[in-house]
Here is the input.
Amino acid sequence: GGGDGGGGHDPLAQTFISAGQNGVFITSIDLYFQTAGTRPVILQIVNTVEGHPSHKIITQKILDVKDLNVSDDASVPTRFYFDSPVYLTDDIEYAFLIKVDEPGCRVFFSEVGQTNLTDNRIVSSNPLKGTLFLSQNGQTWTPHQYRDVKFTLNRAEFDTTATGNPIFVNNALPKRTLNSNPFQCATGTNKVRVTHLNHGFKDNDFVTFSGVLDGFYGANSTTQGIQADALNGQHQVTETTIDTYIITLDNADITGTNSVLGNDFFGGETVKATYQLAGDLVQPSVSQLKFPQTSTVYRYTGMSSGYSKQGVVTVQENDNYYPSLRHLIASEENAVVKLTGGRANNIISGTSAKLEVIMTSTNSFLSPVIDTERVSLCMTSNRITNYTRNNVNVTEIDDRALTASTGISFSGNTISATASGTIRDEFKTLDIGKEITISGSSNNNTTFTITDVTTDGSSIDVTPATTTETASASITVTQHENYFDGIAPEGTSNAANYLTKRFTLANPATALRIMFEANRPEPSVIDIYYKISSEGDVRDFDDIPYVKGTLEVSDNPDENRDLFREREYTISGLSAFSNCAIKMEFRSTSTTEVPRVRNLRVLALAL
Here is the structure.
């Protein structure tokens, strides 16, 4: 103490230097008031610039006048508790500001040469390395070198024998709105396909819908002949792909006067559904403060996509963890019911992931700090598949049978419509890259991939080669609409594709050399396709099918995730071409083992 003045309605500031090895956490400041006035007092901790208080507020506390203690001899403190401990770096100058919007509030300060009120001694020197500042506007500060506010800075004392152990688990996943008209139905079946991007479900999982709107009305105010109540609610999914699945309705919901009107999409724009988050890469994202002599260890427990609890692993904050199996944040309806072992084996009932933090310190001045409002678990899923037609084509919805005809013959890689009329019109609607199945034939009742379709519908080219057969029996051609092979003019039914733009050459070429660096772990596959056209080709380049290339040497898988090796394809003996494009298709039966490619180069050569 010392003196009996200070304060007023003009702001007052006091600089100070924090002490403590590697810094300190302050919990409160004690000030000593002579008078309290009638207005609240604002206390702010701020940084300094060239020894003067700055405008950068580190923390602040406001006390009502009723919480202020006053005395005539500076003997009674008023403690300003901060909402949480505030870290101050050692040997750095800070300041606290006292702001009161009236002149009636006064704090005690010491002044060199004045008498100390507590012991009646003369104050012979400043009690600390700091300066008192006064200001009339809070912008310009005037230092008073021989004065210092009386205050006590209180720090946190941490227990170095204790361990902090916060645990974080995932929240329940809310429903999300699906794309417009996500349901697809077909006449004659109780199966409904749902388009639901990145849904995260597997066969026999559960999904719940709400918000289905009437769209195409049939009898009894139904949607596509299906009662709305039959769609809103919980369903079990089957025939799942990365972005779709099938739900099967009760026949009673779609029979009689409620029969399905036709093949179409419906549901409206307000359909919501439960979903799940899949992760092939997991990263704990944490905002934290770490100091010397302190430690934080992060332990993660996840659940596989097969609903099996995985072992505890130590992970690094803000760094990638690659599980050997895909992990899952399940919807609550699946997490509770399907987790291996039921509720007793769950991480915490109804949840899928747990992040446990172990916090320790050997310095009682310091503790690691975690911002609990900024802790998250980031999961990245690889969109990669290894589909065949049987994985994506649903017979009842996707198969389209052409009119049976006796005018179909087979020779080599060509299936011909020997007579003009309906069958040729239907041949023209077939798509390159899709598969067809022949029935009613003597020698060719099997499945082929379409490689070309003549513009007049007189024939289609297929692979593999057919067995020669003249037009005789009544033959049915069924196209499987929902599967595209890699030769298709655009993408494929597999999820991971890279297509280059069309390259137009200044001079014709007769060969292609395709080079790239890749990391290809087992069991992933990289397929390369190309397509070309000559300058006089009348076909639309976008309609030209791709041709699969062959790697020149054996492509062994890469065991080291960080190793990228050069791959090369050379396609020679081509007809002269002036345009080309490349397609890369990536496939894998494991979403955690995926190929990666860099430095793609394509050379057009005249050999």
Summary: The CA atoms of residues 283 and 320 lie 5 Å apart. DSSP finds four helices and 44 strands in the chain. The chain has five domains: 12-155, 176-273, 277-380, 389-480, 496-605.
